[in-house]
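[step 3/7] inverse_fold.run input=structure_tokens len=137
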């Protein structure tokens, strides 16, 4: 029985020494984690988006319920420029099915000012005395 106790003591001592060695390796040495870890490389990435282009059609077919100002807004032009580009004198008189041309980017849009409304001038008639001649007897 004494022999058995010797091995138990030796095994117990071995466990204690092994545990002490493991815990000693985990002990705090006073250094921070920043001192022991390698630096992390950071990279910045830039995403470059391709330039978007919008293709504007050359013509537009007017639909029922469309107005010239709504069509102009849809294609990024003013209603006056769209009317001038299509020689439309009255923007309220467009019809469904009518095909209008759309100014393209960089195109010169003619600017026309509508003629001033002409009102007939009132003329005042005045009586002008006329000279009458009589024949001599």
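[step 3/7] decode complete -> sequence:
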């Amino acid at each position: 029985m004494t022999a058995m106790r010797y091995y138990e003591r030796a095994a117990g001592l071995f466990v204690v020494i092994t545990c002490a060695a493991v815990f000693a390796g985990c002990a705090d040495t006073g250094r921070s984690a920043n001192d022991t870890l390698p630096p992390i490389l950071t990279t910045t990435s830039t995403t470059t988006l391709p330039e978007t282009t919008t293709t504007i059609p050359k013509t537009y077919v007017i639909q029922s319920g469309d107005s010239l100002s709504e069509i102009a807004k849809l294609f990024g032009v003013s209603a006056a420029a769209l009317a001038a580009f299509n020689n439309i004198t009255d923007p309220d008189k467009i019809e469904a099915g009518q095909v209008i041309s759309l100014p393209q980017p960089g195109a010169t849009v003619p600017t026309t000012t509508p003629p001033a409304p002409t009102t007939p001038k009132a003329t005042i008639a005045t009586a002008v005395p006329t000279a009458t001649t009589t024949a001599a007897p």
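[step 4/7] annotate
Residues 59-101 form a domain with the Membrane-bound Lytic Murein Transglycosylase D; Chain A fold (CATH 3.10.350.10).
DSSP finds four helices and two strands in the chain.
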